[in-house]
Amino acid sequence: MKVLVPVKRVIDYNVKVRVKADQSGVELANVKMAMNPFDEIAVEQALRLREAGTADEVIAVSIGPAQNQETIRTALAMGADRGIHIEAPHDIEPLAVAKLLKAVVAQENPGIVLVGKQAIDDDCNQTGQMLAALLGWAQGTFASALEIAGDKAKVIREVDGGLEHIEINMPAIVTVDLRLNEPRYASLPNIMKAKKKPLDSLTAGDLGVDIAPRLTIVKVEEPAARAAGIKVGDVQELVSKLKNEAKVI
Ligand code: AMP
Asked: What would the mean pLDDT of 84-113 be, rounded to a whole number?
């Protein structure tokens, strides 16, 4: 079985994101980029499936500008077997990503696609669900455990207030959550080996997919600055302020 893992290049989670002066988006120039953290978890899970003998090939695919090949190389250094880069603008929308992934699925015929539950830049949490709908495949979202046996997969889903255990038919889309595993680091020898692993490059045109945006970003704003705190003298004053000023009790 092949496992397809879409990996997105996003602003590194340690970077403080700045909005562009014209409010058209966030500043990307000279900003450290990295693989979306949920996608690292997806790559790790794919490698574990291969190591357990459930999968025999792990393919990492990234959609975006030429620099996304670095993100694919990171997945290859973790242990993925080969990569596919699809040239596209950085801000491509989830629906277009899902359509491109559907075309890759048609070419590669994977048994499972392990997608991050959400990209930490757009926080859309849409791509996996859209891909499942376009393919007509089962989906297990927010997975914190995954077990594949024959043509079924058992997924434990992290839902509000608990865990939901479901069984779905394969082939399937599984979107991975934080507690599924702890991704491995790429060792130096593996980083060197990754440079020689196969990486194909395609365009949306090659796959016959229209990636024209369907949404218009009206403007992007910084969150409101937090007001300065105050010190209260005693509990009575605190209760009075919570009651009469903040009006929360
Ligand atoms: P989103 O729906 O944008 O929150 O993204 C959810 C997941 O879809 C990500 O964690 C990735 O696994 C995948 N994905 C989204 N955009 C891309 C992209 N440009 N290239 C590769 N994978 C992507």
From this structure: 97
